[in-house]
Design goal:
The chain has three helices and nine strands, in the order ααββββββββαβ. By secondary structure, it is α+β, with helices and mostly antiparallel strands. It has one domain: Calycin beta-barrel core domain (Lipocalin). β5 and β6 (118-127) form a beta hairpin.
Amino acid sequence: MKMLRLAPLVMALGLLAGCAVLSPPPMGNRAVPQPARTVDIDRYLGRWYEVYRYDAAFQKDCEAVSADYTRNPDGTIRVLNTCRKGAVDGPVKTVTGRAKIVDTASGAKLKVSFFGPFYGDYWVLDRAEDYQWAIVGEPSGRYLWVLTREPRPAEAVRGFLRRRVEQLGYDWSLVRETRQ
């Protein structure tokens, strides 16, 4: 049932990315945990760089991936995702969406839409105290993004993030490193 809710979003993103064939990504975490910390959305806003991800059809051949979050006048969040196709100096592709907070108590659960009325879950599963890194997933366990404020974090930070992703129950063998 959860995949059915995500399927329209994934299909729409795949079409935007120019993918011809879409199939659901493998299950990478069968027991996605609840978010570990609350999120102050104003501190979360700004630019994030993707360090690791589970591969998804709508991000096929994406490198140098970043996401910019800004507040819209209506209280929703503007999401601008950018990637370079094929290489860190490849052609720039962008997609703009919007997010809304669905769990106001924690601020860690959002819904994101890049195509009309279709929304997908976006959970900030964990984050640094100073908002320098975040691990993002959703309840199906098929999607994972590891984000940092720096395009190329130190090796010690990368190692810590790998261990934290594994502690959260994600299959590291499915993780792809994003070139920045």
